[in-house]
């Protein structure tokens, strides 16, 4: 048995070994505790990164890049037409279809921008995040909202079937709502366990009794005025988006999970 941090490190090493192009020029670096091991693994490759630009997904991510001696370039400084070679990020939960929940650390909007600007989005996590359906172990969907609209969004989420959504507060509640990198609030919206494509194929219907299929619920939440973005990463993968004439997708092409026995479990998206 290995501890969770060692499991994250093993997953990060495998993900970087399999997906980091040695000649990468633009690389997305996500947020959280697992991404630290991804940057560590990139450094351990020992390759020349002088010409490589690393695009952060927020303050913590930027500090991680800079602190590792790599060059950070903010998302809005990416020259027009540039597509990231690859983007790595953590996740709070990943389902059988490689849909993810993200935002447990209050980052999701910039993470989605970066993932969707990349040819390939790779997820790195530990075994707790590996589930058949979203909201199995991780109970809430994080939603980033404009502060002025927060109470209205709470009501609308309840109408969709969320059970007691709450505005996330700082650890010391006296400090009030947790602010994102955009100075927005995060609402944590609990929903019942979500449906997969296999569930739909088996005849289950999205939306009944507040039980939703991932893409459908993501769309419904995004439609609420005041929502900047939702912590469901679903839909197309990068290659699928490129084939459709776009740039990148929200859904990873692969997710790596460090397991308690020291092995790494890999889930790959269907082509
Ligand atoms: O808001 C945070 C991000 O979405 C993280 O990538 C996610 O919460 C996973 O973080 P960790 O690697 O710390 O589990």
From TrEMBL:
Lineage: Eukaryota, Fungi, Dikarya, Ascomycota, Pezizomycotina
Catalytic function, reaction form: aldehydo-D-ribose 5-phosphate = D-ribulose 5-phosphate
InterPro entries per record: NagB/RpiA_transferase-like, Ribose5P_isomerase_type_A
Pathway per the UniProt entry: Carbohydrate degradation; pentose phosphate pathway; D-ribose 5-phosphate from D-ribulose 5-phosphate (non-oxidative stage): step 1/1
Gene3D superfamilies: 3.30.70.260, 3.40.50.1360
EC number(s) given by UniProt: 5.3.1.6
Domain of life: Eukaryota
GO cellular component: cytoplasm
Keyword terms, alphabetized: Isomerase
Protein name: Ribose-5-phosphate isomerase
GO biological process: D-ribose metabolic process; pentose-phosphate shunt, non-oxidative branch
KW Isomerase (keyword) present: yes
GO molecular function: ribose-5-phosphate isomerase activity
Matching Pfam families: Rib_5-P_isom_A
Family, similarity comment: Belongs to the ribose 5-phosphate isomerase family.
């Amino acid at each position: 048995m290995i501890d969770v941090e060692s499991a994250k490190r093993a997953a990060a090493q495998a993900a970087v070994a399999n997906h980091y192009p040695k000649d990468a020029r633009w690389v997305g670096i996500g947020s959280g505790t697992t991404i630290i091991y991804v940057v560590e693994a990139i450094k351990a490759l020992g390759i020349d990164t002088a010409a490589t630009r690393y695009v952060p997904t927020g303050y913590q991510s930027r500090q991680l890049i800079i602190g590792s001696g790599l060059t950070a370039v903010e998302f809005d400084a990416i020259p027009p037409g540039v597509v990231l070679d690859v983007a790595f990020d953590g996740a709070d939960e990943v389902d059988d279809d490689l849909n993810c929940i993200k935002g447990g650390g209050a980052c999701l909007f910039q993470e989605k921008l970066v993932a969707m600007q990349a040819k390939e989005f790779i997820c790195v996590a530990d075994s707790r995040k590996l589930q058949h359906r979203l909201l199995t172990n991780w109970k809430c969907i994080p939603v980033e909202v404009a502060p002025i609209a927060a109470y209205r969004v709470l009501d609308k989420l309840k109408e969709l079937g969320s059970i007691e959504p709450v505005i996330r507060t700082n650890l010391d509640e006296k400090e009030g709502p947790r602010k994102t990198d955009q100075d927005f609030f995060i609402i944590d919206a609990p929903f019942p366990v979500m449906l997969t494509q296999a569930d739909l194929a088996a005849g289950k219907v999205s939306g009944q009794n507040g039980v939703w299929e991932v893409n459908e619920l993501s769309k419904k939440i995004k439609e609420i005025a005041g929502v900047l973005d939702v912590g469901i990463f679903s839909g197309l993968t990068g290659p699928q988006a490129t084939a459709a004439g776009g740039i990148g997708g929200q859904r990873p092409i692969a997710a790596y999970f460090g397991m308690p026995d020291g092995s790494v479990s890999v889930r790959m998206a269907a082509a």
